[in-house]
């Protein structure tokens, strides 16, 4: 089955609506419904925070160690150094995310221009 196998123009939009919106919004609505009833220090919420943090860390590690596009042509040491220095600046500035990200990005851009 392809996008053009059905003659109706609207069926891809229906597919996107059902597959994209409905499938994810069910979990969002469930989170809002259940989230108001869970204590902030409950084991379930601690588990959810741990899993979310681990997923973000895994995505960042994948972007640093196995990048695509222009970043893939940069040396690994440059990517790791920019991330480490950005994280250090983030901690040194009182956990200001934008400052840490900006420093890491500037270092990476300068490193790419020099190399």
UniProtKB/TrEMBL annotation:
<feature type="transmembrane region" description="Helical">
    <location>
        <begin position="97"/>
        <end position="114"/>
    </location>
</feature>
<keyword id="KW-1133">Transmembrane helix</keyword>
<dbReference type="Pfam" id="PF05437">
    <property type="entry name" value="AzlD"/>
</dbReference>
<protein>
    <submittedName>
        <fullName>Branched-subunit amino acid transport protein AzlD</fullName>
    </submittedName>
</protein>
<keyword id="KW-0472">Membrane</keyword>
<feature type="transmembrane region" description="Helical">
    <location>
        <begin position="12"/>
        <end position="34"/>
    </location>
</feature>
<keyword id="KW-0812">Transmembrane</keyword>
<feature type="transmembrane region" description="Helical">
    <location>
        <begin position="76"/>
        <end position="92"/>
    </location>
</feature>
<dbReference type="InterPro" id="IPR008407">
    <property type="entry name" value="Brnchd-chn_aa_trnsp_AzlD"/>
</dbReference>
<feature type="transmembrane region" description="Helical">
    <location>
        <begin position="46"/>
        <end position="64"/>
    </location>
</feature>
């Amino acid at each position: 089955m392809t996008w053009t196998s059905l003659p109706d123009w609207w069926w891809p939009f229906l597919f996107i609506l059902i597959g994209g919106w409905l499938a994810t919004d069910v979990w969002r609505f469930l989170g809002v419904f259940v989230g108001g009833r869970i204590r902030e220090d409950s084991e379930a919420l601690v588990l959810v925070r741990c899993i979310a943090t681990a997923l973000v860390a895994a995505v960042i590690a994948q972007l640093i160690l196995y990048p695509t596009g222009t970043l893939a042509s940069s040396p690994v040491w440059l990517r790791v150094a920019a991330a480490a220095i950005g994280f250090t600046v983030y901690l040194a500035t009182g956990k200001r995310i934008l400052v840490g990200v900006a420093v890491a990005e500037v270092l990476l851009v300068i490193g790419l221009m020099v190399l």
